Amino acid sequence: VNEERLDAVFFALADPTRRRVLERLTEQGPATPTELAAELPITRQAVSKHLAALSRAGLVEPGRRGRETRYEARPATLAEALGWLSRVGTAWDARLVALAELLEDR
Amino acid sequence: MATKRSVRRSLVLPVPPARLWVALSDPDLLARWLGVAVTIEVVPGRVGSAGERTVRIDEVDPARLLTFTWWSADPDDDPPSRVRFEVESLPEGSRLTVEETALADLDDVPGRDAGAAAPDSGGETAAPALATVAAVAPR
Lengths: 106, 139
Prior knowledge:
The complex is a heterodimer of chains A (about 110) and B (about 140). Chain A has helices at about 5-15, 15-30, 35-40, 45-55, 75-105, and strands at about 60-65, 70-75. By secondary structure, chain A is mainly alpha-helical.
């Protein structure tokens, strides 16, 4: 687990526009910044900035397509980042049920 | 700037804070609801274990607050994290709020070396660790 990478994931996901870009790439497949700017209410410049943040987080991966860079979503990164939250959350859910039962018994 | 990963749960229990506190601070009772063997004295700075993990008690305010740091010796496991139990008195009993926050890095765990080397040690090795905590973590 790369903690720096995970921090970057949560930072990238904190922005609604970046979530929207990621959603678009996940649902409809890879796209170039130009295509994204045409589809979403975001300027080409802002798209590039958001893609850079998503890319640093490992949530999207750039690839070449002719003269333009095409970005692809990497859902595995998100699954890995959410892994800790769901694992730790599930563990406490189970423990707190056991605690409530223990206190009822005594 | 970095966003810390944190999990939070809160529940109301029909017992007064003093009784809830016993379940949070008695190792035998802790073991029963945490589901792992627990050897730790709930005193600030003490180092012990909970299952596979090493535990260091950070803050203790009886019937109100308990914080500890725990970590696994296996580097492939989850990173060290800090757990906070907060108890509030309510007319119908107590509210317990549990929060677990992943620490960004092993370097964030002062006294980790002392704890890892001697998981069951008492006050002697824990004292310098506590001093480090006070010096390093005024959060």
